[in-house]
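Sharing in case it's useful to others searching the archive later.

Someone asked me privately for the predicted structure of Pyrroline-5-carboxylate reductase, so I'm posting the question and my answer publicly. Question first, with the sequence:
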Amino acid sequence: MSGDGRPVVLQGVGRLGSAILEGWLATGAVDPADLIILTPSEKPVAEAARAKGARVNPPLEALADARAFVIGVKPAKWLEAAQTVLPHLAADAVIVSVMAGVRGETISEGYDGRPVVRVMPTTGVAQARGVATLWSADAEALSVGQSLFEPIAETVLLDDEALMHAATAVSGCGPAYFFAFTRALAEAGEAEGLSPEAAARLARATLRSAAAGVYGDEALNALIDRVASPGGVTQAGLIALNENGALDRSVESAVKAAVAKSSELSG
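And my answer, the predicted structure tokens:
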């Protein structure tokens, strides 16, 4: 998107919007000179973008040439927020939604039929290490979404919008699952006599170390086998962790619950 002369608009700089903006600034995926930020309150990352040449809350007439409009507001607020900008958006502006649970057809209707690409990114986009699932019924809109997120995330394209619920449950929610497991691991270490500080540091560092091991295409079973020798300490822990399939069932239940909630929110 950088350098094409048509602005990218980011509406909303909450937790996810801030992460996306940080990733763009760090990688140059969007030239700050081509960036317009709409935010009702002052945000440090928006000010950092302003310092690099972005426009923050300019007159809405500035949206007339926008190539992409990224909805970074909460799902409950998007339609209300759209009313303010609609009269000023270019007719061919691509609407980029990072909202869970709101269907592309619904968003397109709210934006007077403009093409929509749905993106489900993780907050790791702030460090250009995110994951982003993309779907669109429009090839050009999908291309715009890819250009915005491929520099800051590993992207996965879906051919069925209904699968966004499952993708949200796995990657959108997944970081919280890993953090919860890491917390439980730290608490278990503390129960075995480690100090709270040592247990937390070990658990967090182990999460980072394990994440480094998944780069590449090596099978997940092979990664487990690399650590867990037959009859060894790690294998003993794994057997206890998944006794009678307890771990598998817990994770399956978590994903099913998230899928159900995402489906409920989409109506």
